[in-house]
Amino acid sequence: MRIKKTLAVIAGVVVIGGLGFVGVKMGYNASQSGDFQAPEPAAMTGKTAIERGKYLALAGDCVACHTAPGGGKPFAGGYGLNTPFGTIYATNITPDKETGIGGWTDQQFINAVRNGKGINGENLYPAMPYNVYAKVSDQDLKDIKAYLNTVPAVHYDGPKTDLPFPYNIRLMMFGWNLLFLNTAPFEADPAQSAEWNRGAYLVEGLGHCTSCHTAKNPLGGDNFGVHLQGGELQGWFAPEITGNIRQGLGDWSNDEIVQYLKTGANARTVASGPMAEAVTNSLQHLSDSDLHAIAVYLKSLPGSKDKSAPLAANSAMANGKALYADNCAACHQNSGEGVRNMVPALKGNNGVQASQPTNILHVLMNGAQGAATLSNPTSADMPEFGWKMTDQQMADASTYIRNAWGNQASAVSKDDVAKARKTQEGAAALHNPAP
C-alpha cells in the first residue's frame, strides 16, 4: 500500500510538473499587471505612501506570519507554518540588505507577493498566499514596500524550508500555479455599490480570508466549490463566513460583524485561536468604514446548504448535559447565552455548529484566550479540560453543546477527539519547541 501511495505521489509530481511546462509553452504569464485603481475609502485620501503602506500591511496581517513566536523581532521571519506537506518557514521582510528585502526593487517585491517569484526567480510555496494577493494593486504593494523600508532592519537568517521529497521540488509550483493561480487583477462589479466592492477587494485580496476560511484540495489549492465555507488550519477550523444563517454570518447584523472584527467580541461570541490573533494584529486597526464594507460583502455571499438535523435524545446528550452543568455552566450559563462581550454564547454560535467539531475540541482541550484589543484590553480566559476529561467525556460534552438550545450539528465521536488530540499535539510541538 505504501509503495502504491508513493508511486501515486511521484506520478502526480510528474503530471503537475509537466502541466507547468505546458503552461509556459502556452504563454502562461505570472506577471500580469496589477496597475489598476483599487477601491479606496475617502479616509485614505491625502495620506503619504508610508502611512498608506502601514495601514495596508496591517490589513494584510503581514506581521503574523513574518514574526517568529516567543519574542521574535517583527517582520524578521522564522514562523513555521504547519502544512500537510511539511513545515514552511516565513522569511525576513525587514529592510536588512543581506537577510531581508532591503536590496529589493519595487518590482521584485511585487513579483514575490503577487506572482510567487523569489528575487532569483525561484518559485515560492503558496503558504505565502500570492494566489490571493494577485488581486492587490501595484500601488498598494508599492506603498507596503515603502512602509517596510522604514521598519527596523533585523539581520536574521531564519530556519529554511526543507520539505520531504517530492514536495521539495520547487519546479512543481509551475504546475500548481497553472492550476490555481489566477493573475487577473481585481475588477469592481459595476452592479454593486462602492462599499461592496471595497469589501470584496479587502476580503479577496489583502485580507486573504480564503487562506483560512476555504477548504483546500489534496494539492493545497482552494476548493473552488466551497468558497469561504470553512477550512481546517493547524488544529483549528476557520468557520464559514458567508451569508449562511446557521453556520455563517447570515443571522448577524453588519454592526455585530464590525464589533467582532474591531474588538474580538460581541453579544454572540468571542474570538479565540488564530482569529483572536488576526483581530489583535490586524482587524482592530482597520477603519470602521472598511470593516463595514467587509461585513456587507461577506453577508452577500451564498453559503453552504445546511444539512444538519436535531439529534434525538440519547446517552451522549444526557452525559454531555451533566458534564456541561458541572464544568461549563458557571461561565456559559445553563441557557448557553454566556456573558456579553466576555464569555461567548454557545446558543446559536456558528462556530459551535460548524461542519467540523475542531474548534470546540481545541478549546475544551487547551483552553483559550480572547483577543486583546485597544477597545477591549481585558479578555476572559477559558480553562483547559484536556487533562480532566476522557476522550469519551469530551465527545459527549461537545455533542451536547452542538445540539442544545436549538443548535444543530453532527455528533462528535471518541475517535474525533483522539484525532484532534494528535493534531493539536503536533501543532503545539511545532510552535513550542523543546529547549
Automatic annotation (TrEMBL):
Residues 48-152, 194-302, 315-405 form the Cytochrome c domain. Residues 412-435 are annotated as: Disordered. Keywords: Cell membrane, Heme, Iron, Membrane, Metal-binding, Repeat, Signal, Transmembrane, Transmembrane helix. It comes from the Bacteria. The keyword Mitochondrion does not apply. It is found in: Cell membrane. PROSITE patterns: CYTC. Residues 413-424 have a biased composition (Basic and acidic residues). Gene3D superfamilies: Cytochrome c-like domain. The chain crosses the membrane at residues 7-28. InterPro entries: Cyt_c-like_dom, Cyt_c-like_dom_sf, Cytochrome_c-type_DH, Membr-bd_ADH_cyt_c. PANTHER family: ALCOHOL DEHYDROGENASE CYTOCHROME C SUBUNIT, BLL4482 PROTEIN-RELATED. This is C-type cytochrome. It comes from Rahnella laticis.
